[in-house]
Amino acid sequence: MRAEFPAFRLGKVLATSFTATLTERQGDPVERIPVPRRLVDWLAVSGLAVDSCTAAQLDLARELRESIHAAATAAALQEALPAAAVQVINDRSAQGRAAAVLTAEGERRWRLGSTSCVEDALSVIAADAISVIAGERDGKLALCASPTCRAAFFDTSQSRTRKWCDMNTCGNRQKKARFNANANANQRKNTGAAP
Length: 195
Ligand SMILES: [Zn+2]
Description:
Layout (H helix, E strand, L loop, with lengths): L13 H6 L2 E2 L6 E2 L4 H10 L9 H22 L6 H13 L2 E5 L5 E5 L5 H16 L6 E4 L8 E4 L11 H25 L4
Antiparallel strand pairs: 1-2, 3-4, 5-6
This protein binds zinc ion.
């Protein structure tokens, strides 16, 4: 019965795809990994399959997620990185055992430690966040223009002018809102109704 849980919003960047497992942080937040099994599902579709997940490991994952969100938000605003968030990211990065491996087809995969545990997967996500926040990758951290979202996302567009974390959700909603506002304004004009 997977349908009972909110769908994932998967992006191309592992760290910000992970922070997007909680959306609408400034509105009505939607928790997309509400139970340990959903974290297992998310890790599987993100190339980090684990054997199992406990409630404590889910807590650890969420703590890392919010730390990445806090640090990435500060980086996007060019503010000082919050020390507590940096500590969590570094601890998670150091705790897991994961190795990058090359497939015969020339693709990079992650091989987790012998027990394929959540901590190993979190170390890969933490390291990804570090490379993004440290500015090592081609792109720029920015905040979603949707006032109920404000998610930190990694803009890899040529012009670095992307406004929304996700074109299909936040971007679309904003476009629709503007369209409706214009339609209402036109209707008022046509009917002569007071605004
Ligand atoms: Zn957004």
